[in-house]
């Protein structure tokens, strides 16, 4: 049985499709938006539309950007010999908050997960291998989450990178197993980065 107007139900349904948002949270968000002045609601809708129209993947690192290259790839002061491989764009932000890593990144947009039908071809692995072959990269840091999918992805990448004869390292286990990088504090992440170890594929 529907309790609200169809347009309200549609708004709730759309919010409920967001990750981590249940039906009750979706209702709260919908009512919050509806209680805002028209200008605020229009600004939110406009921000979503503009982001979808302008944001694309950086052709070099696959991070999100609205420029030709993302700001990190475009920064000539960064260490172009080191690439930190992460699963998601939000993981880049976690590393940048430490202010200790000065290399480049490569975003896979996921990890290998057979249960979720995500295989190597669904990730930005080909682009990573192309970069290693074409750019003067000396080290690849595998910074996927220390869970089952993250470990499987790191081991898979280590095997693929072995023929390039570069240093392949993995974050040290200062990060708790099963933890998510976006929730790790800066000190723990910095120590994990400093204590990274070589990976034997």
Overview of this protein structure:
This protein has 201 residues and is α/β, with parallel strands linked by helices. The chain folds into 2 domains: 6-54, Helicase, Ruva Protein, domain 3; 57-198, Dna Topoisomerase Vi A Subunit, Chain: A, domain 2. Helices cover 44% and strands 13% of the residues. It has helices at residues 6-16, 23-35, 38-54, 71-74, 89-98, 125-134, 148-161, 186-194; strands spanning 56-57, 64-65, 79-86, 103-107, 139-142, 167-170, 197-198. Strands 4-3-5-6-7 form a 5-stranded mixed β-sheet. The protein has a two-stranded antiparallel sheet with strand order 1-2. The radius of gyration is 20 Å and the shape is elongated. The N and C termini lie far apart (56 Å). The model has no long low-confidence stretch (mean pLDDT 91).
Topology, please?
Layout: H1 6-16, H2 23-35, H3 38-54, E1 56-57, E2 64-65, H4 71-74, E3 79-86, H5 89-98, E4 103-107, H6 125-134, E5 139-142, H7 148-161, E6 167-170, H8 186-194, E7 197-198
Parallel strand pairs: 3-4, 3-5, 5-6
Antiparallel strand pairs: 1-2, 6-7
Helix pairs in contact: 1-2, 5-8
Which terms would index this structure?
alpha/beta, 201 residues, two-stranded antiparallel ribbon, 8 helices, Dna Topoisomerase Vi A Subunit, Chain: A, domain 2, Helicase, Ruva Protein, domain 3, five-stranded mixed β-sheet
- Strand order, largest beta sheet: 4-3-5-6-7
What is the radius of gyration?
Answer: 20 Å
CATH class of the largest domain: Alpha Beta
CATH topology of the largest domain: Dna Topoisomerase Vi A Subunit, Chain: A, domain 2
User: What is the rounded distance between the termini?
Assistant: 56 Å
- Please report the number of helical segments: 8
Order of helices and strands: HHHEEHEHEHEHEHE
Q: Structural class per helix/strand content? A: alpha/beta
Q: Give the oligomeric state.
A: single chain
Q: Estimate nothing, just give the exact number of structural domains.
A: 2
Q: Into which percent range does the helicity of residues fall?
A: 40-55%
Average pLDDT, rounded to a whole number, is: 91
Beta fraction of the residues? 5-15%
CATH architecture level-2 label of the largest domain = 3-Layer(aba) Sandwich
Give a quick account of the main beta sheet: strands, pairing sense, barrel closure. 5 strands, mixed
Question: What does the overall shape look like?
Answer: elongated
- Give the low-pLDDT segments: none
Give a count of the beta strands, DSSP E runs of length 2 or more: 7
């Amino acid at each position: 049985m529907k309790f609200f107007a169809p347009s309200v139900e549609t708004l709730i349904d759309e919010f409920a499709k967001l990750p981590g948002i249940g039906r009750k949270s979706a209702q709260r968000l919908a009512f919050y938006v509806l209680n805002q002045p028209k200008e605020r609601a229009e600004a939110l809708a406009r921000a979503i539309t503009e982001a979808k129209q302008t944001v694309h993947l950086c052709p070099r690192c696959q991070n999100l950007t609205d420029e030709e290259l993302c700001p990190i790839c475009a920064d000539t002061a960064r260490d172009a010999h080191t690439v930190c491989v992460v699963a998601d764009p939000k993981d880049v932000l976690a590393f940048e908050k430490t202010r200790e890593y000065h290399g480049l990144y490569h975003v896979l947009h996921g990890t290998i997960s057979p249960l979720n039908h995500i295989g190597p071809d669904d990730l930005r692995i080909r682009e990573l291998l192309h970069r290693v072959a074409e750019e003067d990269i000396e080290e690849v840091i595998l910074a996927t989450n220390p869970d089952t999918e993250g470990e499987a992805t790191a081991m898979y990448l280590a095997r693929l990178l072995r023929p390039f004869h570069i240093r392949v390292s993995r974050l040290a286990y200062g990060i708790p197993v099963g933890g998510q990088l976006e929730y790790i504090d800066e000190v723990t992440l910095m120590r994990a980065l400093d204590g990274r170890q070589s990976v034997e594929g």
